[in-house]
Amino acid sequence: MHLMYILLQLAGAIMLLLWAVRMVRTGVERAHGVLLREALRGATKGRVRAAAAGTVLAVMLQSATAVAVLAAGFAATGVMSVSGGLAVMLGADVGSALVVQALSFDLSWLVPLLLFAGATMFLKVEARIVKQTGRTLLGIAFILISLRMVGEATAPMRHSALLPMAVDYLRSDPVTAFGAAALFTWLVHSSVASVLLFMSMAAQGVLPAEVALPMILGVNLGAGLVAVGLTRGQAIEARRIPLGNLIFRATAAVVILLGLQVATLPMAWFGETAARQVVNMHLGFNVTLLVACLPFTAVMEKLARLILPDAPAGEEAFDLMSRRKSALDRTVIKMPSVALASATREVLRMAETVEIMLRPVMELFESGDKARVGQLRRLDEEVNRAHTDIKLYIAEVNRGTMSQDEARRGIELTDLAINLEHAGDIIAKNLLVLAEEKNDKRLSFSREGWSELTALHDRVLANMQIAMNVLVSGDLEAARQLVVEKERMRRLERDSHERHLKRLQSGTPQSIETSDIHLEAVRALKEFNSLLVSVAYPILTQSGDLLESRLAKTA
Predict the structure, then answer these.
(1) CB 194 within 8 A of CB 231
(2) What is the Cα–Cα distance from 175 to 225, expressed in whole angstroms?
(3) Taking every annotated instance into account, which residue ranges of this chain make up the domain PhoU (predicted)?
(4) pLDDT tens-digit series, residues 140-166
Protein backbone atom coordinates (compact mmCIF):
# COMPACT_ATOMS: atom_id res chain seq x y z
CA MET A 1 0.00 0.00 0.00
CA HIS A 2 2.85 2.36 0.85
CA LEU A 3 4.48 1.63 -2.53
CA MET A 4 1.22 2.37 -4.35
CA TYR A 5 0.98 5.74 -2.60
CA ILE A 6 4.56 6.61 -3.60
CA LEU A 7 3.92 5.66 -7.23
CA LEU A 8 0.67 7.66 -7.27
CA GLN A 9 2.43 10.70 -5.83
CA LEU A 10 5.21 10.37 -8.40
CA ALA A 11 2.71 10.00 -11.27
CA GLY A 12 0.84 13.09 -10.10
CA ALA A 13 4.07 15.07 -9.84
CA ILE A 14 5.12 14.04 -13.37
CA MET A 15 1.75 15.05 -14.85
CA LEU A 16 1.89 18.40 -13.03
CA LEU A 17 5.37 18.94 -14.43
CA LEU A 18 4.21 18.19 -18.00
CA TRP A 19 1.18 20.44 -17.65
CA ALA A 20 3.23 23.27 -16.15
CA VAL A 21 5.80 23.16 -18.98
CA ARG A 22 2.94 23.30 -21.49
CA MET A 23 1.34 26.17 -19.54
CA VAL A 24 4.51 28.26 -19.78
CA ARG A 25 4.79 27.60 -23.52
CA THR A 26 1.14 28.49 -24.10
CA GLY A 27 1.47 31.74 -22.17
CA VAL A 28 4.52 32.86 -24.11
CA GLU A 29 2.98 31.89 -27.46
CA ARG A 30 -0.25 33.76 -26.76
CA ALA A 31 1.54 36.84 -25.46
CA HIS A 32 4.37 37.08 -27.97
CA GLY A 33 3.60 34.58 -30.73
CA VAL A 34 3.77 37.09 -33.57
CA LEU A 35 7.03 38.60 -32.30
CA LEU A 36 8.56 35.12 -31.98
CA ARG A 37 7.64 34.21 -35.55
CA GLU A 38 8.96 37.55 -36.80
CA ALA A 39 12.25 37.00 -34.94
CA LEU A 40 12.60 33.56 -36.49
CA ARG A 41 11.79 34.91 -39.94
CA GLY A 42 14.51 37.53 -39.50
CA ALA A 43 17.13 34.90 -38.62
CA THR A 44 17.23 33.23 -42.03
CA LYS A 45 20.60 34.68 -43.04
CA GLY A 46 23.67 33.04 -41.53
CA ARG A 47 23.96 29.83 -39.56
CA VAL A 48 25.30 31.46 -36.39
CA ARG A 49 22.48 34.01 -36.36
CA ALA A 50 19.92 31.27 -36.96
CA ALA A 51 21.35 29.15 -34.12
CA ALA A 52 21.28 32.15 -31.77
CA ALA A 53 17.65 32.83 -32.67
CA GLY A 54 16.79 29.20 -32.03
CA THR A 55 18.44 29.36 -28.60
CA VAL A 56 16.52 32.48 -27.57
CA LEU A 57 13.20 31.14 -28.83
CA ALA A 58 13.64 27.81 -27.04
CA VAL A 59 14.43 29.60 -23.77
CA MET A 60 11.26 31.68 -24.11
CA LEU A 61 9.05 28.75 -25.14
CA GLN A 62 10.80 26.22 -22.86
CA SER A 63 10.63 23.79 -25.76
CA ALA A 64 12.93 22.97 -28.66
CA THR A 65 10.05 21.02 -30.21
CA ALA A 66 7.90 24.16 -30.44
CA VAL A 67 10.76 25.90 -32.27
CA ALA A 68 11.03 22.90 -34.61
CA VAL A 69 7.37 23.23 -35.55
CA LEU A 70 7.81 26.97 -36.21
CA ALA A 71 10.91 26.37 -38.36
CA ALA A 72 9.16 23.59 -40.27
CA GLY A 73 6.27 25.93 -41.04
CA PHE A 74 8.65 28.53 -42.48
CA ALA A 75 10.43 25.86 -44.54
CA ALA A 76 7.09 24.68 -45.94
CA THR A 77 6.41 28.16 -47.35
CA GLY A 78 9.93 28.65 -48.68
CA VAL A 79 10.87 31.40 -46.21
CA MET A 80 13.56 29.29 -44.54
CA SER A 81 15.99 26.80 -46.08
CA VAL A 82 16.48 23.34 -44.62
CA SER A 83 20.07 24.14 -43.62
CA GLY A 84 18.91 27.35 -41.94
CA GLY A 85 16.20 25.40 -40.12
CA LEU A 86 18.77 22.84 -38.94
CA ALA A 87 20.90 25.66 -37.53
CA VAL A 88 17.83 26.97 -35.70
CA MET A 89 17.16 23.49 -34.30
CA LEU A 90 20.72 23.01 -33.06
CA GLY A 91 20.48 26.34 -31.25
CA ALA A 92 17.01 25.50 -29.91
CA ASP A 93 18.30 22.30 -28.32
CA VAL A 94 20.94 24.35 -26.48
CA GLY A 95 18.22 26.79 -25.38
CA SER A 96 16.11 23.92 -24.05
CA ALA A 97 19.14 22.68 -22.06
CA LEU A 98 19.65 26.18 -20.64
CA VAL A 99 16.04 26.15 -19.42
CA VAL A 100 16.84 22.95 -17.52
CA GLN A 101 19.90 24.64 -16.04
CA ALA A 102 17.84 27.59 -14.77
CA LEU A 103 15.16 25.35 -13.25
CA SER A 104 17.71 23.05 -11.63
CA PHE A 105 18.61 25.61 -8.95
CA ASP A 106 16.69 25.83 -5.68
CA LEU A 107 14.09 28.48 -6.47
CA SER A 108 11.48 27.33 -3.96
CA TRP A 109 11.59 30.73 -2.27
CA LEU A 110 10.16 32.19 -5.49
CA VAL A 111 7.05 30.00 -5.55
CA PRO A 112 4.78 32.19 -3.34
CA LEU A 113 5.79 35.32 -5.25
CA LEU A 114 5.22 33.67 -8.63
CA LEU A 115 1.82 32.32 -7.55
CA PHE A 116 0.67 35.69 -6.18
CA ALA A 117 1.93 37.75 -9.12
CA GLY A 118 0.84 35.23 -11.75
CA ALA A 119 -2.66 34.73 -10.37
CA THR A 120 -3.19 38.46 -9.94
CA MET A 121 -2.15 39.20 -13.52
CA PHE A 122 -4.15 36.32 -14.98
CA LEU A 123 -7.38 36.83 -13.01
CA LYS A 124 -7.51 40.61 -12.53
CA VAL A 125 -6.11 42.07 -15.76
CA GLU A 126 -7.82 41.78 -19.17
CA ALA A 127 -4.89 43.01 -21.31
CA ARG A 128 -3.75 39.98 -23.30
CA ILE A 129 0.01 40.31 -22.81
CA VAL A 130 -0.31 40.90 -19.05
CA LYS A 131 -2.81 38.06 -18.70
CA GLN A 132 -0.65 35.58 -20.60
CA THR A 133 2.46 36.72 -18.71
CA GLY A 134 0.55 35.80 -15.58
CA ARG A 135 -0.12 32.36 -17.08
CA THR A 136 3.61 32.00 -17.72
CA LEU A 137 4.53 32.90 -14.14
CA LEU A 138 1.98 30.42 -12.81
CA GLY A 139 3.45 27.74 -15.05
CA ILE A 140 6.96 28.36 -13.70
CA ALA A 141 5.62 28.17 -10.13
CA PHE A 142 3.91 24.85 -10.89
CA ILE A 143 7.14 23.49 -12.40
CA LEU A 144 8.98 24.27 -9.16
CA ILE A 145 6.16 22.74 -7.09
CA SER A 146 6.16 19.60 -9.22
CA LEU A 147 9.92 19.18 -8.81
CA ARG A 148 9.50 19.38 -5.04
CA MET A 149 6.77 16.73 -5.30
CA VAL A 150 9.07 14.49 -7.34
CA GLY A 151 11.74 14.83 -4.66
CA GLU A 152 9.27 13.96 -1.90
CA ALA A 153 7.94 10.97 -3.85
CA THR A 154 11.35 9.52 -4.66
CA ALA A 155 12.98 10.11 -1.24
CA PRO A 156 11.59 6.87 0.29
CA MET A 157 12.94 4.90 -2.68
CA ARG A 158 16.46 5.29 -1.31
CA HIS A 159 15.58 2.72 1.36
CA SER A 160 13.93 0.28 -1.05
CA ALA A 161 15.46 -3.19 -1.32
CA LEU A 162 14.68 -3.27 -5.04
CA LEU A 163 16.49 -0.03 -5.85
CA PRO A 164 20.09 -1.38 -5.69
CA MET A 165 19.09 -4.27 -7.96
CA ALA A 166 17.45 -1.95 -10.51
CA VAL A 167 20.41 0.44 -10.48
CA ASP A 168 22.92 -2.41 -10.86
CA TYR A 169 20.94 -3.77 -13.81
CA LEU A 170 20.83 -0.40 -15.59
CA ARG A 171 24.51 0.15 -14.83
CA SER A 172 25.35 -3.15 -16.54
CA ASP A 173 22.91 -2.54 -19.43
CA PRO A 174 23.23 1.08 -20.64
CA VAL A 175 21.41 0.22 -23.87
CA THR A 176 18.22 -0.52 -21.92
CA ALA A 177 18.62 2.72 -19.94
CA PHE A 178 19.18 4.59 -23.22
CA GLY A 179 16.11 3.06 -24.88
CA ALA A 180 13.84 3.50 -21.86
CA ALA A 181 14.71 7.21 -21.55
CA ALA A 182 14.17 7.76 -25.30
CA LEU A 183 10.77 6.06 -25.09
CA PHE A 184 9.75 8.04 -22.00
CA THR A 185 10.72 11.36 -23.62
CA TRP A 186 8.81 10.47 -26.76
CA LEU A 187 5.73 9.59 -24.70
CA VAL A 188 5.74 12.80 -22.63
CA HIS A 189 6.83 14.98 -25.61
CA SER A 190 9.21 17.06 -23.49
CA SER A 191 12.96 16.76 -23.01
CA VAL A 192 12.80 19.53 -20.38
CA ALA A 193 10.39 17.50 -18.25
CA SER A 194 12.43 14.29 -18.71
CA VAL A 195 15.76 15.81 -17.66
CA LEU A 196 14.19 17.63 -14.70
CA LEU A 197 12.64 14.35 -13.56
CA PHE A 198 15.96 12.49 -13.77
CA MET A 199 17.69 15.40 -12.03
CA SER A 200 15.21 15.24 -9.14
CA MET A 201 15.73 11.49 -8.81
CA ALA A 202 19.50 12.00 -8.83
CA ALA A 203 19.18 14.68 -6.13
CA GLN A 204 17.44 12.12 -3.88
CA GLY A 205 20.19 9.55 -4.45
CA VAL A 206 17.82 7.32 -6.43
CA LEU A 207 19.64 7.68 -9.77
CA PRO A 208 23.48 7.65 -9.87
CA ALA A 209 25.07 9.95 -12.45
CA GLU A 210 26.83 7.10 -14.29
CA VAL A 211 23.44 5.44 -14.84
CA ALA A 212 21.84 8.77 -15.81
CA LEU A 213 24.42 9.40 -18.57
CA PRO A 214 23.02 6.90 -21.11
CA MET A 215 19.54 8.04 -20.09
CA ILE A 216 20.41 11.65 -20.96
CA LEU A 217 21.60 10.42 -24.37
CA GLY A 218 18.25 8.64 -24.74
CA VAL A 219 16.37 11.81 -23.81
CA ASN A 220 18.06 13.65 -26.65
CA LEU A 221 17.20 10.91 -29.11
CA GLY A 222 13.57 10.88 -27.90
CA ALA A 223 13.33 14.67 -28.30
CA GLY A 224 14.41 14.33 -31.93
CA LEU A 225 11.73 11.67 -32.52
CA VAL A 226 9.03 13.96 -31.10
CA ALA A 227 9.69 16.69 -33.68
CA VAL A 228 9.69 14.15 -36.51
CA GLY A 229 6.34 12.79 -35.36
CA LEU A 230 4.71 16.21 -35.00
CA THR A 231 5.65 17.25 -38.57
CA ARG A 232 4.94 13.97 -40.34
CA GLY A 233 1.81 15.34 -42.03
CA GLN A 234 3.43 18.55 -43.29
CA ALA A 235 5.07 19.37 -46.62
CA ILE A 236 8.28 17.56 -47.52
CA GLU A 237 10.41 20.69 -47.06
CA ALA A 238 9.07 21.00 -43.51
CA ARG A 239 9.78 17.35 -42.66
CA ARG A 240 13.43 17.56 -43.74
CA ILE A 241 14.40 19.84 -40.84
CA PRO A 242 13.36 17.54 -37.95
CA LEU A 243 14.67 14.54 -39.93
CA GLY A 244 18.12 16.11 -40.30
CA ASN A 245 18.10 17.13 -36.64
CA LEU A 246 17.18 13.57 -35.64
CA ILE A 247 20.06 12.16 -37.70
CA PHE A 248 22.50 14.57 -36.01
CA ARG A 249 21.21 13.69 -32.54
CA ALA A 250 20.90 9.95 -33.08
CA THR A 251 24.39 9.69 -34.57
CA ALA A 252 25.99 11.64 -31.73
CA ALA A 253 24.04 9.78 -29.03
CA VAL A 254 24.84 6.32 -30.42
CA VAL A 255 28.53 7.17 -30.96
CA ILE A 256 28.87 8.38 -27.36
CA LEU A 257 26.92 5.37 -26.06
CA LEU A 258 29.29 3.01 -27.90
CA GLY A 259 32.27 4.99 -26.64
CA LEU A 260 31.11 4.46 -23.05
CA GLN A 261 31.53 0.72 -23.59
CA VAL A 262 35.28 1.12 -24.03
CA ALA A 263 36.03 4.18 -21.91
CA THR A 264 34.76 5.64 -18.65
CA LEU A 265 33.79 9.28 -18.58
CA PRO A 266 34.88 10.98 -15.32
CA MET A 267 31.66 12.21 -13.70
CA ALA A 268 33.61 14.81 -11.70
CA TRP A 269 33.95 16.82 -14.92
CA PHE A 270 30.26 17.67 -14.76
CA GLY A 271 29.91 18.88 -11.18
CA GLU A 272 30.07 17.91 -7.54
CA THR A 273 26.58 16.44 -7.04
CA ALA A 274 24.69 13.83 -9.05
CA ALA A 275 21.85 16.28 -9.79
CA ARG A 276 24.26 18.90 -11.11
CA GLN A 277 26.07 16.28 -13.18
CA VAL A 278 22.79 15.24 -14.87
CA VAL A 279 21.86 18.75 -16.04
CA ASN A 280 25.46 19.58 -17.01
CA MET A 281 25.73 16.39 -19.09
CA HIS A 282 22.58 17.40 -20.95
CA LEU A 283 23.90 20.90 -21.64
CA GLY A 284 27.35 19.57 -22.58
CA PHE A 285 25.85 17.15 -25.12
CA ASN A 286 23.84 19.89 -26.84
CA VAL A 287 26.63 22.47 -26.87
CA THR A 288 29.01 19.87 -28.33
CA LEU A 289 26.39 18.93 -30.92
CA LEU A 290 25.96 22.57 -31.92
CA VAL A 291 29.69 23.17 -32.34
CA ALA A 292 30.31 19.89 -34.17
CA CYS A 293 27.29 19.91 -36.49
CA LEU A 294 26.70 23.59 -37.33
CA PRO A 295 29.33 23.58 -40.14
CA PHE A 296 27.63 20.55 -41.73
CA THR A 297 24.03 21.75 -41.99
CA ALA A 298 24.31 22.12 -45.78
CA VAL A 299 25.62 18.55 -46.06
CA MET A 300 22.75 17.30 -43.90
CA GLU A 301 20.29 19.19 -46.12
CA LYS A 302 21.52 17.18 -49.12
CA LEU A 303 21.20 13.94 -47.18
CA ALA A 304 17.68 14.86 -46.06
CA ARG A 305 16.76 15.56 -49.69
CA LEU A 306 18.00 12.11 -50.68
CA ILE A 307 15.91 10.47 -47.94
CA LEU A 308 12.87 12.69 -48.60
CA PRO A 309 13.02 13.63 -52.31
CA ASP A 310 10.76 16.27 -53.81
CA ALA A 311 7.25 15.09 -54.59
CA PRO A 312 6.29 14.71 -58.28
CA ALA A 313 4.60 17.67 -59.92
CA GLY A 314 1.05 18.07 -58.73
CA GLU A 315 1.66 16.09 -55.53
CA GLU A 316 2.61 19.02 -53.26
CA ALA A 317 1.46 18.79 -49.67
CA PHE A 318 -0.87 21.76 -49.88
CA ASP A 319 -2.81 20.01 -52.70
CA LEU A 320 -3.67 17.09 -50.41
CA MET A 321 -6.54 19.06 -48.91
CA SER A 322 -8.34 19.25 -52.24
CA ARG A 323 -8.43 15.43 -52.47
CA ARG A 324 -9.78 14.88 -48.96
CA LYS A 325 -13.25 13.39 -48.79
CA SER A 326 -16.04 15.73 -47.73
CA ALA A 327 -17.10 15.50 -44.08
CA LEU A 328 -20.77 16.13 -44.97
CA ASP A 329 -22.62 12.93 -44.14
CA ARG A 330 -25.96 12.76 -45.93
CA THR A 331 -27.06 9.68 -44.00
CA VAL A 332 -27.61 11.81 -40.85
CA ILE A 333 -29.67 14.60 -42.45
CA LYS A 334 -32.67 13.64 -40.33
CA MET A 335 -30.64 13.97 -37.12
CA PRO A 336 -29.95 17.73 -36.84
CA SER A 337 -27.42 17.61 -33.98
CA VAL A 338 -25.31 14.97 -35.74
CA ALA A 339 -25.69 16.67 -39.12
CA LEU A 340 -24.54 20.02 -37.69
CA ALA A 341 -21.49 18.31 -36.18
CA SER A 342 -20.76 16.96 -39.66
CA ALA A 343 -21.15 20.47 -41.12
CA THR A 344 -18.81 21.85 -38.42
CA ARG A 345 -16.11 19.38 -39.49
CA GLU A 346 -16.52 20.47 -43.10
CA VAL A 347 -16.28 24.16 -42.15
CA LEU A 348 -13.08 23.35 -40.24
CA ARG A 349 -11.74 21.53 -43.30
CA MET A 350 -12.62 24.59 -45.37
CA ALA A 351 -10.74 26.82 -42.88
CA GLU A 352 -7.68 24.56 -43.07
CA THR A 353 -7.71 24.86 -46.87
CA VAL A 354 -7.85 28.66 -46.62
CA GLU A 355 -4.92 28.57 -44.17
CA ILE A 356 -2.91 26.47 -46.64
CA MET A 357 -3.61 29.14 -49.26
CA LEU A 358 -2.57 31.98 -46.94
CA ARG A 359 0.73 30.56 -45.64
CA PRO A 360 2.89 30.93 -48.79
CA VAL A 361 1.59 34.37 -49.81
CA MET A 362 4.66 36.32 -48.64
CA GLU A 363 7.00 33.83 -50.30
CA LEU A 364 5.06 34.30 -53.55
CA PHE A 365 5.47 38.06 -53.27
CA GLU A 366 9.21 37.36 -53.45
CA SER A 367 9.34 34.49 -55.95
CA GLY A 368 6.26 35.00 -58.13
CA ASP A 369 6.17 31.23 -58.77
CA LYS A 370 3.34 31.01 -61.33
CA ALA A 371 2.93 27.24 -60.98
CA ARG A 372 2.36 27.57 -57.26
CA VAL A 373 0.01 30.50 -57.78
CA GLY A 374 -2.01 28.28 -60.09
CA GLN A 375 -2.15 25.53 -57.47
CA LEU A 376 -3.43 27.96 -54.83
CA ARG A 377 -6.12 29.17 -57.20
CA ARG A 378 -7.25 25.58 -57.70
CA LEU A 379 -7.53 25.34 -53.92
CA ASP A 380 -9.77 28.41 -54.03
CA GLU A 381 -12.06 26.50 -56.39
CA GLU A 382 -12.19 23.75 -53.76
CA VAL A 383 -13.10 26.34 -51.11
CA ASN A 384 -15.89 27.63 -53.35
CA ARG A 385 -17.25 24.10 -53.83
CA ALA A 386 -17.14 23.45 -50.07
CA HIS A 387 -19.01 26.73 -49.46
CA THR A 388 -21.80 25.73 -51.83
CA ASP A 389 -22.01 22.19 -50.43
CA ILE A 390 -22.23 23.42 -46.83
CA LYS A 391 -25.01 25.92 -47.63
CA LEU A 392 -27.09 23.33 -49.48
CA TYR A 393 -26.47 20.70 -46.78
CA ILE A 394 -27.57 22.98 -43.93
CA ALA A 395 -30.58 24.15 -45.96
CA GLU A 396 -31.63 20.51 -46.31
CA VAL A 397 -31.15 19.95 -42.57
CA ASN A 398 -33.35 22.99 -41.92
CA ARG A 399 -36.26 21.33 -43.71
CA GLY A 400 -36.55 18.90 -40.80
CA THR A 401 -37.56 19.56 -37.21
CA MET A 402 -34.89 21.57 -35.35
CA SER A 403 -34.63 23.19 -31.96
CA GLN A 404 -34.02 26.91 -31.67
CA ASP A 405 -30.37 26.32 -30.71
CA GLU A 406 -29.86 23.97 -33.68
CA ALA A 407 -31.40 26.50 -36.08
CA ARG A 408 -29.12 29.22 -34.70
CA ARG A 409 -26.07 26.96 -35.05
CA GLY A 410 -27.01 26.23 -38.66
CA ILE A 411 -27.13 29.95 -39.44
CA GLU A 412 -23.77 30.48 -37.72
CA LEU A 413 -22.11 27.71 -39.77
CA THR A 414 -23.58 29.08 -43.01
CA ASP A 415 -22.25 32.55 -42.19
CA LEU A 416 -18.81 31.09 -41.40
CA ALA A 417 -18.75 29.24 -44.71
CA ILE A 418 -19.65 32.47 -46.55
CA ASN A 419 -16.87 34.37 -44.76
CA LEU A 420 -14.30 31.66 -45.46
CA GLU A 421 -15.27 31.65 -49.14
CA HIS A 422 -14.75 35.43 -49.16
CA ALA A 423 -11.39 34.97 -47.38
CA GLY A 424 -10.30 32.52 -50.08
CA ASP A 425 -11.28 35.06 -52.75
CA ILE A 426 -9.18 37.74 -51.02
CA ILE A 427 -6.15 35.48 -51.42
CA ALA A 428 -6.87 34.29 -54.96
CA LYS A 429 -8.23 37.53 -56.44
CA ASN A 430 -6.36 40.16 -54.43
CA LEU A 431 -3.12 39.01 -52.80
CA LEU A 432 -2.02 36.59 -55.54
CA VAL A 433 -2.84 39.15 -58.23
CA LEU A 434 -0.72 41.72 -56.38
CA ALA A 435 2.14 39.21 -56.06
CA GLU A 436 2.01 38.54 -59.82
CA GLU A 437 1.91 42.25 -60.61
CA LYS A 438 4.93 42.96 -58.39
CA ASN A 439 7.00 40.23 -60.02
CA ASP A 440 5.85 40.91 -63.60
CA LYS A 441 6.94 44.54 -63.20
CA ARG A 442 10.16 43.46 -61.37
CA LEU A 443 9.42 45.73 -58.41
CA SER A 444 10.82 45.56 -54.88
CA PHE A 445 9.37 46.68 -51.58
CA SER A 446 11.41 48.92 -49.31
CA ARG A 447 12.99 47.12 -46.37
CA GLU A 448 10.60 48.84 -43.95
CA GLY A 449 7.56 48.16 -46.14
CA TRP A 450 8.43 44.47 -46.49
CA SER A 451 8.91 44.18 -42.73
CA GLU A 452 5.46 45.69 -42.15
CA LEU A 453 3.79 43.32 -44.60
CA THR A 454 5.44 40.19 -43.21
CA ALA A 455 4.55 41.22 -39.65
CA LEU A 456 0.91 41.71 -40.65
CA HIS A 457 0.89 38.36 -42.49
CA ASP A 458 2.34 36.58 -39.44
CA ARG A 459 -0.28 38.14 -37.18
CA VAL A 460 -3.11 37.08 -39.49
CA LEU A 461 -1.72 33.52 -39.58
CA ALA A 462 -1.61 33.47 -35.77
CA ASN A 463 -5.20 34.73 -35.65
CA MET A 464 -6.20 32.03 -38.14
CA GLN A 465 -5.02 29.43 -35.62
CA ILE A 466 -7.01 31.10 -32.84
CA ALA A 467 -10.11 31.23 -35.08
CA MET A 468 -9.92 27.50 -35.84
CA ASN A 469 -9.48 26.75 -32.14
CA VAL A 470 -12.56 28.84 -31.35
CA LEU A 471 -14.53 27.01 -34.05
CA VAL A 472 -13.67 23.65 -32.50
CA SER A 473 -13.74 24.49 -28.77
CA GLY A 474 -16.06 27.49 -28.45
CA ASP A 475 -13.59 28.83 -25.87
CA LEU A 476 -14.76 32.20 -24.52
CA GLU A 477 -11.30 33.53 -23.66
CA ALA A 478 -9.96 32.72 -27.13
CA ALA A 479 -13.03 34.39 -28.68
CA ARG A 480 -12.33 37.56 -26.69
CA GLN A 481 -8.68 37.45 -27.78
CA LEU A 482 -9.75 37.21 -31.42
CA VAL A 483 -11.91 40.34 -31.16
CA VAL A 484 -9.09 42.20 -29.42
CA GLU A 485 -6.84 41.20 -32.32
CA LYS A 486 -9.28 42.83 -34.76
CA GLU A 487 -8.79 46.19 -33.07
CA ARG A 488 -5.03 45.66 -32.94
CA MET A 489 -5.02 44.81 -36.65
CA ARG A 490 -6.92 48.04 -37.37
CA ARG A 491 -4.24 50.02 -35.53
CA LEU A 492 -1.44 48.20 -37.36
CA GLU A 493 -3.05 48.97 -40.71
CA ARG A 494 -3.36 52.66 -39.79
CA ASP A 495 0.24 52.81 -38.57
CA SER A 496 1.50 51.06 -41.71
CA HIS A 497 -0.44 53.50 -43.88
CA GLU A 498 1.06 56.51 -42.05
CA ARG A 499 4.61 55.13 -42.26
CA HIS A 500 4.14 54.38 -45.94
CA LEU A 501 3.05 57.98 -46.62
CA LYS A 502 6.14 59.24 -44.79
CA ARG A 503 8.33 57.04 -47.01
CA LEU A 504 6.60 58.49 -50.07
CA GLN A 505 7.24 62.01 -48.79
CA SER A 506 10.91 61.20 -48.26
CA GLY A 507 11.16 59.97 -51.86
CA THR A 508 12.06 56.32 -51.16
CA PRO A 509 12.13 54.84 -54.71
CA GLN A 510 10.86 51.35 -53.80
CA SER A 511 7.95 52.84 -51.84
CA ILE A 512 6.92 55.02 -54.77
CA GLU A 513 7.04 52.11 -57.22
CA THR A 514 5.11 49.68 -55.01
CA SER A 515 2.78 52.15 -53.30
CA ASP A 516 -0.50 50.80 -54.67
CA ILE A 517 0.56 47.17 -54.17
CA HIS A 518 1.64 47.83 -50.59
CA LEU A 519 -1.54 49.64 -49.58
CA GLU A 520 -3.83 47.11 -51.26
CA ALA A 521 -1.98 44.18 -49.65
CA VAL A 522 -2.30 45.74 -46.20
CA ARG A 523 -6.00 46.41 -46.79
CA ALA A 524 -6.54 42.83 -47.99
CA LEU A 525 -4.83 41.34 -44.91
CA LYS A 526 -6.93 43.52 -42.63
CA GLU A 527 -10.14 42.50 -44.41
CA PHE A 528 -9.09 38.82 -44.23
CA ASN A 529 -8.51 39.17 -40.49
CA SER A 530 -11.93 40.78 -39.98
CA LEU A 531 -13.57 37.76 -41.62
CA LEU A 532 -11.76 35.45 -39.19
CA VAL A 533 -13.10 37.36 -36.20
CA SER A 534 -16.67 36.54 -37.22
CA VAL A 535 -16.23 33.06 -35.68
CA ALA A 536 -16.08 34.70 -32.24
CA TYR A 537 -19.22 36.84 -32.47
CA PRO A 538 -21.86 34.14 -31.77
CA ILE A 539 -19.96 32.96 -28.68
CA LEU A 540 -19.51 36.49 -27.32
CA THR A 541 -23.10 37.45 -28.10
CA GLN A 542 -24.40 34.42 -26.25
CA SER A 543 -22.21 35.17 -23.21
CA GLY A 544 -23.26 38.83 -23.15
CA ASP A 545 -19.72 40.05 -23.91
CA LEU A 546 -20.67 41.61 -27.25
CA LEU A 547 -23.10 44.50 -27.64
CA GLU A 548 -25.53 44.50 -30.53
CA SER A 549 -24.49 48.03 -31.51
CA ARG A 550 -21.32 50.03 -31.01
CA LEU A 551 -23.31 53.31 -31.06
CA ALA A 552 -23.79 55.11 -27.80
CA LYS A 553 -27.38 55.32 -26.60
CA THR A 554 -29.04 58.72 -27.04
CA ALA A 555 -31.06 60.34 -24.32
Answers:
(1) no
(2) 17
(3) 347-428
(4) 888 888 877 876 776 666 666 666 677
